[in-house]
Design a protein that fits this description.
The chain is an alpha/beta fold and 729 residues long. 42% of the residues lie in helices and 19% in strands. The strands form six sheets. Strands 3-4-2-5-6-1-7 form a seven-stranded parallel β-sheet, sandwiched between helices. It starts with a helix and ends with a helix. The structure holds one DNA strand of 16 nucleotides.
Length: 729
DNA sequence: GACCTGCTGCGGATTG
């Protein structure tokens, strides 16, 4: 064992030996000195299953092992399932070291929480929402029982960064630290995370005021091998004659996956259901036991857990057809291969998915199955360019050669979450002055891009809606509406969830469907990878009763789009410009496309060259004008919305802007005028967007702030103008 | 043309 190991407490060393470990991993050794020192924040950045959790807990437990009064370690996780996993893993350590471990989330028995409340000590494993409820309802107890807190550790920190829930978490950390103010030194924050695109910016996210230095511990680059390939499919226009691409994809999936252990990522719950039902049918036709199962967020927990256990046990061949639910940190072991059907949405998520495959001594395997429409006289430019295949190729190259992935977007205002935190602070203290709220949340806190004027406007608007009211002496207290919101069971989460129906078969809950899904009695549906007939729909208790049947289609689940990054579109352009998708390794080139994908690529390339797209960004076809910018969706959205403001009829397909009933000259002149207007801002553009209420409390945000927040998230006027000046004018 | 996450205290019935 190495030098750092010997600085751990003897009881911790004993536990390590009992695990049968002959050595600590590199990140575990590296983490010991800064965590034992206890005078700095630490970011541990490494892939899934690399021993990050132990890297924190070994030194942290070592230095707090004899603390018996109050909690010493606060562990925060985005998932209840992860808390349960960690609790199991810490159990043996807690037996040897006599450190209490308390899981604390909505599913944990009240009795267990009450017991820990009477005698707080050791480690608490909690969700942000449960911590919020403790701060609002029990802040006095929190102040006492966390008064000797030594560490705050956040698991899966990458899952929080840039999101409303992440902003909530940061605000909670600041509020907790403010509550424990008698402690002179701030409490070290430790973030455990998957590798991040902009790692050097993360210390500033973890703590906004830099009151503590931050060490970054990074896993050294692995030399693991990757096998990858892309298979193309042509979806025929005339379905009577030829087999649809979907069926050929399923046939190939069946032969690729049968008998092994695989994950199929299908990008939407609807497609996940279709594919898994089709593969199950094929098992039935071949008279073999079914080994294909769906996994997504609308399926009941019991079904998902059964599948996770089956994947982990490894004794039965199992393929999960899944959404991002199997991208996260839940323990399912490693699989033989990962298959992506349709183009991935981001390189970052593709990377997480790839990390799920590759057993000991075998390379990670990634396959992509991409279908494109057969061309006809009226095919769109996007189809002619074979844009989905091109995006898949670009993402593969960015992941494998350039080792690039999207950095988190850190510029959002999060007004909805700010409003939530204003209410939470007032609820926590009973009454508090406006300047105190501003200082704690904005000036010293994580909403530091919000100005005093914007904050005043928000408070004023909240007052008008009876969310809060000012009493004599200047204190703010909750208004009637504010009382109603904060007393609701639903208040502790900052993210929005739709109303849902429960789907039940033979008294067993299969999962949930959004209330606005169009489902009728007697209809046949696919759900949970099986085929059903809808027997009855009960709107009072929000249930749908189904019975087994044949046939049916999966229901439509709703969702918002996401933004493709500039770098991905630029890579797509570079590939066509250079004319080759191959990856140079040494003096040779790796080809990873099958023959269909290759001919699809050549069709797209041919159109690119014929249309002179290597030098033209704007083209005309009949009375349509197209802008092919090869830029990310923020810039595409900005240019499209600028044109909509000038009353053009505009639509966007995969980053290509289509303008109806016009000509090149007219559009170019308009764009020139737009560029000469230096006054136009992102918020001005947001004015013409109708549906801007996206986050949970957006209904209570004044229109002006809504425009600022939306503009910041979806537009970039400055860079769009730069691009237009360079390429169009 | 997407996905995911989480949440209380109390009253009343039932059981040992």
């Amino acid at each position: 064992m190495t030098e750092p190991f010997h600085s751990l407490d003897r009881r911790i060393q004993k536990w390590v030996f009992k695990q049968g470990w002959s050595n600590l991993r590199q990140i575990q050794n590296d983490a010991i000195p800064p965590i034992l020192a206890g005078n700095q924040d630490v970011i541990i950045s490494a892939s899934t299953a690399s021993g990050k959790t132990e890297a924190f807990f070994l030194p942290a437990c070592s230095s707090t092992i004899d603390e018996k009064d109050g909690y010493s370690i606060l562990y925060i996780s985005p998932l209840k399932a992860l808390i349960n996993d960690q609790y199991r893993r810490l159990e043996s350590l807690s037996v040897i070291t006599d450190i209490n471990v308390t899981p604390w989330h909505g599913d944990v028995a009240q009795s267990l929480k009450t017991k820990s409340k009477r005698n707080p000590s050791g480690i608490v494993l909690i969700t942000p929402e449960s911590l919020e409820s403790l701060l609002i309802r029990n802040s006095g107890w929190v102040q006492r029982s966390f008064s000797s807190l030594k560490y705050i550790v956040i698991d899966e920190f990458h899952a929080f960064i840039g999101t409303a829930r992440g902003q909530h978490l940061l605000s909670l950390l600041n509020r907790l630290e403010a509550l424990l103010q008698e402690i002179e030194e701030p409490i070290p924050r430790v973030a455990l995370s998957a590798t991040l695109g902009n790692l050097n910016e993360i210390p500033g996210v973890l703590r906004q005021n830099s009151r503590m230095p931050c060490s970054i511990i990074k896993e050294s680059k692995s030399n693991s091998q990757i096998r990858f390939g892309i298979q193309g499919y042509i979806d025929p226009v005339n379905n009577d004659q030829k087999i649809p691409a979907f069926h050929r994809i399923c046939t190939d999936l069946f032969s690729l996956c049968r008998g092994g252990s695989h994950l199929i990522f299908a990008n939407s719950r609807k497609r996940t259901e279709s594919i898994s039902a089709q593969l199950s049918d094929m098992c039935e036709q071949e008279v073999v036991p079914n080994e294909f199962f769906p996994h997504h967020g609308s399926l009941d927990k019991s079904l998902r857990e059964a599948l996770e256990a089956r994947l982990q046990k490894d004794n039965l061949p199992t393929t999960a057809v899944c959404t991002m639910t199997l991208e996260l940190g839940i323990d399912i072991g490693k699989v033989d291969s990962v298959i992506q059907v349709t183009a991935p949405h981001s390189v970052a998520s593709l990377r997480q998915r790839l990390g799920r495959s590759g057993r000991r001594n075998t390379p990670s395997t990634l396959r992509m199955l991409i279908s494109e429409k057969e061309l006809h006289a009226d095919s769109s430019i996007g189809d002619k360019l074979r844009i989905e295949l091109l995006q898949s190729i670009a993402m593969t190259r960015l992941l494998i050669i350039k080792k690039w992935y999207e950095p988190a977007d850190l510029g959002s205002f999060h007004f909805s979450t700010l409003l939530h935190q204003v209410l939470a602070l007032i609820a926590q203290w009973g009454g508090i002055r406006a300047d105190q709220i501003y200082n704690s949340l904005c000036k010293e806190g994580c909403f530091n891009n919000v100005t005093v004027e914007q904050f005043k406007e928000l408070l004023h608007h909240m007052g008008q809606q009876d969310l809060l009211t000012q009493i004599s002496g200047g204190q703010l207290v909750l208004g009637l509406k504010g009382e109603y919101l904060t007393n609701s069971y639903n208040f502790y989460t900052v993210f929005k969830t739709p109303q849902e129906f429960r789907v039940i078969a033979r008294d067993k809950t299969l999962g949930t469907l959004p209330v606005d899904t169009l489902i009728l009695e007697g209809q046949h549906i696919i759900f949970s990878g099986k085929r059903w007939r809808v027997e009855s729909i009960n709107t009072d208790n929000k249930t749908i009763i189904v019975s087994p049947s044949k046939g049916g289609d999966p229901p439509q689940f709703n969702g918002n789009g996401m933004l493709v990054h500039d770098t991905v579109r630029q890579e797509m352009f570079d590939i066509y410009k250079s004319g080759s998708y191959k990856i140079p390794i040494g003096s040779s080139e790796v080809d990873y496309l099958d023959s269909t994908a290759k001919s699809l690529f050549n069709e797209g390339l041919e159109f690119f060259q014929e249309a002179l797209l290597h030098e033209r960004r704007i083209i005309q076809h009949n009375d349509y004008v197209y802008i092919v910018s090869w830029m990310g969706d923020k810039i595409v959205n900005t240019i499209a919305t600028m044109l909509i403001k000038l009353n053009y009829k505009v639509s966007i397909f995969s980053g290509i802007i289509e303008i109806e009933k016009t000509n090149l000259e007219t559009v170019s002149n308009s764009l020139f005028e737009l560029c000469s207007n230096n006054q136009l801002t992102n918020s001005d553009l947001a004015l013409s967007v109708r549906e801007k209420r996206i986050e949970k409390y957006d209904d209570f945000i004044p229109e002006s702030l809504l425009n600022i927040g939306y503009g910041q998230n979806y537009f970039d006027v400055e860079r769009a103008r730069e691009w237009l000046e360079l390429h169009i004018i």
